[in-house]
Design goal:
GO terms for molecular function: ATP binding; ATP hydrolysis activity; ATP-dependent DNA damage sensor activity; mismatched DNA binding. Belongs to the DNA mismatch repair MutL/HexB family. Keywords: DNA damage, DNA repair. The protein is of the alpha+beta class. It has 2 domains: 191 residues, 2-Layer Sandwich (Heat Shock Protein 90); 114 residues, Ribosomal Protein S5, domain 2, CATH 3.30.230.10. It contains 9 helices and 15 strands. A hairpin with a 4-residue loop joins β9 and β10. α2 runs parallel beside α6 and α6 runs antiparallel to α7. It starts with 9 loop residues before the first helix and ends in an 11-residue tail after the last helix. Bound molecules: adenosine-5'-diphosphate (ADP) and magnesium ion. Adenosine-5'-diphosphate binds next to α2 and α4.
Amino acid sequence: MADIIRLLPDHVANQIAAGEVVQRPASVVKELMENAIDAGATSIKLIIKDGGKVLVQVVDNGKGMSETDARLSFERHATSKIQSAEDLFQLNTKGFRGEALASIAAIAHVEMHTKPENVEMGTHLRIEGSKIIFQEVAVTPLGTSIAVKNLFFNIPARRNFLKSNQVELRHITDEFHRVALAHPSIGFHFYNNGSELFNLPVTNLRQRIVHVFGGRFNEKLVPVAEETQVVKISGFLCKPEFAKKSRGEQFFFVNNRFIKSAYLNHAVVSAFEGLIKNTNHPGYFLYLDVDPKSIDINIHPTKTEIKFDDEHTVYAILRSTLKHSLGQFNVVPALDFEH
Ligand code: ADP
Ligand code: MG
């Protein structure tokens, strides 16, 4: 029998990988904003058109890229963030897979402008469906701008699967909230179809929450602070009387990365036991800092799930810390409270 196994061409492999990394425009928003943060940006601008289907652009004032790096950044498994497998256990960056830009470029029209410090001219590059259309020297400010147009232009099935502009914008806004809440020390702008949705100045966490969710949040927040050998916990709970029937504002960040965890959510809910109706959901903005060696964030391509070495201990510390915070604020039971 003849041999039939072949290696897939790069552009096909990239398209397949893209299916995992990029589900919708909001995934592009997440990846581009995380890259801007990893590049040390202090100011990040997000520009969207038509729910991100027509355009997702992120402009940062981070460290930029050299001419060669600009081209290499679109290669699969090309990254400046890790060098060895050991580095995976001490990650200080959001990215490390070197897959995002390669994936995005496989399924969209991408235009990049980038310039590092101490050089006069930057790079302007266009890549479409993994194919570099041109790369030229260009006048461009320090930092990087990446514009992603016509997402899934070459995968009609995926493009048709996208929801209305309004729904896609909601997903994008969720991602924006997560990144903005994780980084109050970075300034953010967010424009949708030419109008400004958010202008978030550099500030502290309490003010950032208020800027994102509105002034009424200021009186809702109960501060949380605890530091143990295993985990440092900070952030805010919403007072029990503001618990809602819908889930609303529930945010966990581990080492400044937004994560989803039903298990840790359970710890929060159980700290509110007796203070809210069990059909209501508490609001929270909780930041856990742990030794990077004690977690594995490599278990999911979009990295919203992580694995703790010692989940039970984190759960127990979290629960007792939150109970203490709620107790300190002399919170009265809100069982009869109606919304
Ligand atoms: P990863 O973030 O996992 O390294 P990406 O595909 O997202 O993979 O990016 C590849 C590389 O391109 C990064 O490691 C980084 O060196 C460079 N890069 C991407 N975006 C930016 C940016 N906004 N500013 C500076 N460098 C960037
Ligand atoms: Mg990245």
